[in-house]
């Protein structure tokens, strides 16, 4: 299974960050896998942001709920992350992962004007 994140590397404050994870070698609808977004801010540990399950059910970390939306496109075998009202504190390397076993390489998103 391979995962690849894509999206803009620079987002302005107050805008919405949008990233896509393209999956190959496995279906995002295959039972019983969970497809996650995880980030790591500079000098900090990994932070689980949320996930979409094989069933399409979504889960979010409470600290980001309200700003985070995860969706999927089963026809493209992709799932997406949207994080609204970003601030410089949202600057991080963003990863997509299947469970915690298969990971993408990560993509750096910088929030700056």
Question: Would you mind describing this structure in some detail?
Answer:
With 113 residues, the chain is mostly beta strands. Helices cover 0% and strands 52% of the residues. It contains no helices and eleven strands. The protein is globular, with a radius of gyration of 13 Å.
Give a brief rundown of this model.
By secondary structure, the chain is mainly β. Helices cover 0% and strands 52% of the residues.
Fold topology:
Blueprint: E1 2-6, E2 10-11, E3 17-24, E4 34-40, E5 46-53, E6 58-60, E7 68-73, E8 78-83, E9 92-98, E10 102-103, E11 107-111
Parallel strand pairs: 2-11
Antiparallel strand pairs: 1-3, 3-8, 4-5, 4-9, 5-6, 7-8, 9-10, 9-11
Task: Please tag this protein with its features.
113 residues, mainly beta, seven-stranded mixed β-sheet, four-stranded antiparallel β-sheet, 11 strands, 0% helix
């Amino acid at each position: 299974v391979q995962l690849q994140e894509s999206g803009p590397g620079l987002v302005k404050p107050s805008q919405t960050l949008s990233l896509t994870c393209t999956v190959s070698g496995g279906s995002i609808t295959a039972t019983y896998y969970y497809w996650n977004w995880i980030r790591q801010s500079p000098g900090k540990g990994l932070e689980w942001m949320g996930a979409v399950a094989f069933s399409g059910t979504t889960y979010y970390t409470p600290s980001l709920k309200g700003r985070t939306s995860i969706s999927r496109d089963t026809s493209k075998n992709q799932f997406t992350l949207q994080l609204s009202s970003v601030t410089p504190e949202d600057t991080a390397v963003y990863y997509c992962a299947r469970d915690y076993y298969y990971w993408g390489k990560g993509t750096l998103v910088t929030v700056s004007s």
